[in-house]
Amino acid sequence: MAKQKKAPRPKAETPKGFRDYFGHEVTTRAEMLRQIAGVYHRYGFDALESSAVETVEALGKFLPDVDRPNEGVFAWQEDEGDWLALRYDLTAPLARVYAQHRNDLPTPYRRYAMGPVWRNEKPGPGRFRQFYQCDADTVGSGSVAADAEICAMLADTLEEVGIPRGDYVVRVNNRKVLNGVLEAMGLGDDQDKRDAVLRTIDKFDKVGEAGVRELLGKGRLDASGAYIDGVGLSDEQAGPVVAFLTSKGADNAATLTNLRAAIGGSAIGGEGVDELEQIADLLAAQGYGPDRIVIDPSVVRGLGYYTGPVFEAELTFEIFDEKGRKRQFGSVAGGGRYDDLVKRFTGQAVPATGVSIGVDRLLAALREKGRIEAREVGPVVVTVMDRDRMADYQAMVAELRQAGIRAEVYLGNLKNFGNQLKYADRRQSPVAVIEGGDEKDRGVVQIKDLILGAQIAETATLEEWKDRPSQFEVPRDQLVAKVREILDAHGL
Amino acid sequence: MAKQKKAPRPKAETPKGFRDYFGHEVTTRAEMLRQIAGVYHRYGFDALESSAVETVEALGKFLPDVDRPNEGVFAWQEDEGDWLALRYDLTAPLARVYAQHRNDLPTPYRRYAMGPVWRNEKPGPGRFRQFYQCDADTVGSGSVAADAEICAMLADTLEEVGIPRGDYVVRVNNRKVLNGVLEAMGLGDDQDKRDAVLRTIDKFDKVGEAGVRELLGKGRLDASGAYIDGVGLSDEQAGPVVAFLTSKGADNAATLTNLRAAIGGSAIGGEGVDELEQIADLLAAQGYGPDRIVIDPSVVRGLGYYTGPVFEAELTFEIFDEKGRKRQFGSVAGGGRYDDLVKRFTGQAVPATGVSIGVDRLLAALREKGRIEAREVGPVVVTVMDRDRMADYQAMVAELRQAGIRAEVYLGNLKNFGNQLKYADRRQSPVAVIEGGDEKDRGVVQIKDLILGAQIAETATLEEWKDRPSQFEVPRDQLVAKVREILDAHGL
Fold first, then answer.
1. Residue A95 parent element (H or E)
2. Quick one: which of B75, B72, B147 has its CA closest to B312?
3. Where is the Aminoacyl-transfer RNA synthetases class-II family profile domain (chains A, B) (predicted)?
4. How far does the CA of residue B38 sit from the closest CA of chain A (Å)?
5. Where are the alpha helices (DSSP H) in B169-287?
6. Cβ–Cβ of A46/B60 closer than 8 Å?
7. 3.30.930.10, 3.10.20.70, 3.40.50.620, 3.40.640.10: CATH of B16-142+339-376
8. Could you give the ipTM of this predicted complex?
9. pLDDT tens digit string along A147-180?
């Protein structure tokens, strides 16, 4: 007789590019978001949690005639016909929310938002399709004071979560200055040339001034021996870009002077430099000097929608990369002014400015600096020596919890006592409590200091080990006090 | 010449059945989740945040041959062919996570999870397609001590978030008892009859004992005059159900005695009653009496996957419903033991028990009881009288924030000063600060108590109004102290 075929078992896997977060990863992020929300709130920003699902129409990244509009987003069609998608950032939903609720919201509307966003992109190492963003934006204010406020708040936030002054810098630039430079180059509306120049600017960090000159001109032989075609500009045309890229002076005043020279007579460029000057003045008046916030023309920011000031927060300390080389930690937040996002819905231009913090990178930085413990300490584990006295053990954990101590009874397989200590070990428990029938009769409990025990196991001789100084017998009514004492001794 | 057609503007709307949450709604929920997480953590539960997106295969609700498997979930197909979906609860992902990571996780694995889930259902009033769940589960323990622990933790949690003892009760039942009753009725494997009996049990609250007898027998004329066909059981067959439904005694001991009678000689029923007795004993030993946790045979719980103890937390205070009638607030949490969820993946049965708290209903209950302010107090608003002195105003808010006071500069349209006070009003600001050129020269600021001002405006005569006792002039260096004084006076 043929065996009956069973349905195959489902694979226990996250979809490609997704992952789960466990224990300490979740709680440290939650704690950091709480600290950030505290700063944002103190600055007058209100929380907003928009729905994770939007109509593709509202997200607005897609052509209406594409059959399956899922380029870059996770999208699906409703039975009635609407295409829906998971939000890919927190800014597009903000524009929709503001347009939808503008009659009920204050103007300006300062809001913060934190939560996952989803990108339908090819996953890679350390590159996930669901990740956290944490944004603050001011909608409805065209004042550079709003931009300055965001920069100051960003600096305050980094210090609040544990990045000390000196370990970060907020760098500020202005898209209008860049536009002024392009104008001064006489590129007119030649979008291809403009794009090629922008791409070249992005390479300044790598190739330096001479490299940029070559790339803007005829071209350049790169380190691998390949020849990179240049943009084909004359030396005079390239001049303003080079002046712009090398305009960072000893202080903001010097940088501003250099920028004014780089933009030549461009009106839009002049406006941009004026705005940068006002931002620097406002920040200086509040005590945010260039040790925290600095004008830096090398900040470009990828997104095309920025229309004015742009900012980026960098961590300046060095770390070792996967190949053991020292490098700077780099960017953890960025943002800028974008004045056209709400217009899509209402036809009216609404000025807006904001910042987005890369929560996971910031957490990685704090771990790197040893400001977050890599693993968390587990609960005190009360072992079960006698299954009929479960109520006794439950009473112990209840007492411990009432004293604010994290504690649990072992509820697994009782056949082998070793399992219970292995479990405590896996939980990273600091303390195990043991009460067998003998202890019960004598009114005592055994308390094992598992942290000290592990230390002794690593270093002690057999004689020291036999003394077992990491295990203590105390009267039952001193259980909580002794556990507290051990936790205190380990600074927990 | 024909006008050029513009692309139509996108609608600024959430998809049907979705909504946004603003300000206080977000922060009060976050605070409640933080409190709940604190209790769960103290009980030894670890946080887990699984990915919001799962493979449809892992969620496992759907037939493999359905072309578009989106019944009840939001699902879409990847380019490479996998169907993905948004999680519809936090339990199915837990089963997948445990199966995937079981070699790295402790056993038992106690975990809590909180976050949105999505249901592709017809939206209705107050019924959304994205909502929060907040779960705690113990995977890998078959001990009733794990069930008892969940019940105790649920009681502690409700008290922690602000539901006082006496305003809630955790009711406990056991599916095995119900199975024993069905066995005692002699229904055997007649699934249709079993289902009909279960549906009838659910109506006990409404129709009472006599009604249930009719519905189990020939049928019943309901209040609207319609005749409801009965299940067609004999009086003897119906006996155990009626005994079961009326088994709640004056205390747990009486209830247990009645239940033993109701199940007759059923082995599975006896096992269920034994488990209930053990749970009641364990809880009593820890001081959780029937004022907090009680055995109640009327708890059925909809989900088919429960296999043992089931629990439900009810708030017992009365509220007024939308028609002004008094009714009990009802259920805010429920759960139970489910022993088969992990087996789908691994082939091995893994016992598990857990609870899910309906976060939004619990928040509604706290609002109902006046334990959460309906609206939050806004920031102190520093008005802008002189746009050239923005730095001065920014310095004021910086001082206020450093003193821990929520504050912001008005950054909107400066043409009309009235706008600024309207803005402060819309923000629910408690205080506005005014410093014109005259005040600046004299080294003072005007501080408006907006809460007092609103009270006066409602009740004062014109003379009182003219005195404007809600506005104070203080030296500039007393700004923070005076604002603090006003906030304190309003208990803020």
1. helix A91-101
2. B147
3. 1-379
4. 10
5. 175-184, 191-202, 204-216, 235-245, 252-262, 267-285
6. no
7. 3.30.930.10
8. 0.90
9. 999 999 999 999 999 999 999 999 999 999 988 9
